[in-house]
Design goal:
FAD/NAD(P)-binding domain; Enolase-like, domain 1; alpha/beta; globular; about 35% helix; seven-stranded mixed β-sheet; 24 strands
Amino acid sequence: MAYDLIVIGAGPAGYVCAIRAAQLGMKVALVDKRKNGGGTCVNIGCIPSKALLYASEMYEEAAHGLGPLGIVVAAPKLDLTTMMKHKDDTVDANVKGLAFLFKKNKIDFHVGAARIAAPGKVDVAGEDGRTTQIETKAIVIATGSDVAQLPGVEIDEKRIVSSTGALSLETPPAKLLVVGAGVIGLELGSVWARLGAEVIVVEFLDRILPGMDGEVAKQFQRLLEKQGFKFHLGHKVARIDKSGARLKTTIEPSKGGEASVLESDVALIAIGRRPYTNGLGLENVGVKTERGQVVIDEHFRTNIEGIYAIGDVVRGPMLAHKGEDEGVAVAEILAGQHGHVNYDVIPSVVYTSPEIASVGKTEEELKSLGIAYNVGKFPFSANGRARSMRKTDGFVKILADATTDRVLGAHIMGYGAGEMIHEAAVLMEFGGSAEDLARTCHAHPTLSEAVKEAALGVAKSSIHI
């Protein structure tokens, strides 16, 4: 059967592209190695990690957060088996939802390893060993990313784990070593810290959360240290010895110096992710890549006619929602429309406690670009709703162009930050100013009032500080 479009990879970028193309009248095939749609995000990434983050947060709240509210309960007991079942049930519900959407939109789902035989031709190798070739007018590569490996360290998903293994530990480790102070390491470290683990973080750079606003990162590190995290910043892992009952990790200063040894029960390797294109046959077809990424133009086209790429395999942040928007855009382009992604307005969220959310430029980026800006900040400690909820950690920061007042960036650290960031995103999508946001009536009492107050602060006119 000939298709209008074959999408390789059923993660957020790929399945959204397939659904949007089908909505626009195309005959679509979706190919993935997994029997389930959703890719890494739904099966072993975003969705299961958020299920454990929420469950562990509720455990922490039951243990320490209810007493001050006048709610007296016995000390909670951890039933990790049931908690893991909650995670698995959440994944299963999402997977079944995607299967329904594929059927609803008449998308053919092919299970197997895809290889591009030629422009317009894709070979699918099934588990039974048979290979089927399917033909199409256009191909979209959406194969996502894989865990970045630490040289000299073998991940066994038992004692030395990636994010995949860290989502399925059979018992909370007494001591967890996290290699990498990025989003994945801090989120999964938070899960196991709440469930009883002592968490030690080793980071090559001299700060946590590379790429995030520097002020936010510094304050957040202090909060994590209050939660029991220990940090070795500016250090690298030289080797991990797993011959004994406990892991012995040798670390060295990144800039040179004396080595030291850290003991742990489990080591989580969370140093990032890399584009995954193994087995696609890109070199045989002639698709250009750079540093592992598929090279595309502003319309998501590769250098080979009829082959496109989106998501983690191309430039830009490795975020599911970025890939989703690219999936919609390329489907609309293929349908003769004007699909577009505004890369200046892509939110990012760290689902820790408190959450961190940002959109647009950081102060460091504005300084490096030579853009003059004004800052408005407002702490949640001065917000009535936050006080009533005992969620006063963190603040909102708004960055606006010094000349035009156009909002260039927004950064929130606090309870519910991942939800609140989107009013800033919508404002920025329409080129709004800090004054526009400040003059928009916000319901009282709400956490979102802190966003309005930060916008007022750009003009030094905050009311409640």
